[in-house]
Design goal:
Length: 200
C-alpha cells in the first residue's frame, strides 16, 4: 500500500510517487524537493490549487510532479533562461493544463510581471546570485506567501566551507522571509540545502 505523505505525494518501499492521472515515480536523485521529502522535510510547500512561480525550470522534471500536486485549479509559471532547454518544457506543458513556460531571465522579474500574484516562489538556479534572484522575485508573493529554494553552495563559492555558505545564505534570506525549515539534501544531492520560508 502506498502511504500518502502530502497531497498527491505517496511513498512505498522507499520510493516516492506523485499521482496525476496515474502514479509517477518521483526520483530523489533527479529532483530536489523529492530529496528533501526523503530526508524528512515536514513543511512541504506545494499544495493543491496553488499558483507557483518556478525559477530554473529546465526540462520540467520536477515541474511535472508539481503539476500533479497542484492539479487543474493550480498553475505553474515556469521560468527558464535557456532557449535550447525550454523546447522540452513546452512539449510537456502542451500535454498539461496547468504549466505555463516562460523563456525569461529570472534576474528580470519586470519582464513577466503580467503573471500576477502567486502562493509560492520556488527556485532551483545554480548561480552565484541565487539568493538575490529569489529576493527580487518576492514581488510576486501574496501576503504570507511561501518560498522554497534548493540552494547550491558550490555555485556561490567553490572553495569556502559549505556550512558557512549555508549560514550566510539563510541570514540573507531571513531579511525578507521567516525561515520555516532547512534540510540538507545529502546523499541525493551534494552541497545543497533545501530552504522553506514565508514572506515577512
Ligand atoms: C539545476 S537546473 C533546474 C532543474 C529543475 N529545477 C528540475 O528539478 O527539473 C537549473 C536551471 O536554471 C536555469 N537558469 C540559470 N540561470 C537562470 C536565470 N537567470 N533565469 C532562469 N533560469 C535560469 C538553467 O538554464 C537550468 O536549466
Amino acid at each position: 500500500m502506498r502511504k500518502e505523505l502530502f497531497h498527491n505525494v505517496y511513498k512505498k518501499d522507499d520510493k516516492l510517487y506523485t499521482k496525476g492521472g496515474k502514479f509517477e515515480e518521483w526520483n530523489p536523485h533527479k529532483s530536489k524537493p523529492a530529496s528533501a521529502i526523503m530526508n524528512g522535510l515536514k513543511n512541504f510547500p506545494v499544495k493543491k490549487g496553488m499558483r507557483i512561480l518556478y525559477l530554473g525550470a529546465a526540462h520540467g522534471t520536477t515541474i511535472s510532479h508539481f503539476s500533479d500536486i497542484v492539479e487543474n485549479d493550480g498553475r505553474i509559471y515556469a521560468v527558464e533562461v535557456s532557449g535550447k532547454i525550454i523546447d522540452k518544457l513546452v512539449e510537456k506543458a502542451g500535454k498539461s493544463s496547468n504549466i505555463v513556460p516562460l523563456l525569461e531571465d529570472a534576474k528580470f522579474p519586470e519582464n513577466y510581471g503580467w503573471i500576477g500574484k502567486v502562493d509560492l516562489v520556488y527556485e532551483d538556479i545554480a548561480q552565484r546570485d541565487q539568493t538575490t534572484i529569489l529576493k527580487k522575485n518576492k514581488v510576486f508573493l501574496k501576503k504570507g506567501g511561501l518560498i522554497a529554494i534548493a540552494l547550491k553552495a558550490k555555485a556561490i563559492d567553490s572553495v569556502r566551507d559549505i556550512k558557512e555558505i549555508y549560514k550566510e545564505a539563510v541570514k540573507e534570506l531571513s531579511e525578507d522571509f521567516e525561515i520555516i525549515e532547512t534540510i540538507d539534501l545529502e546523499p541525493y544531492e551534494h552541497d545543497h540545502l533545501f530552504i522553506v520560508g514565508r514572506l515577512k
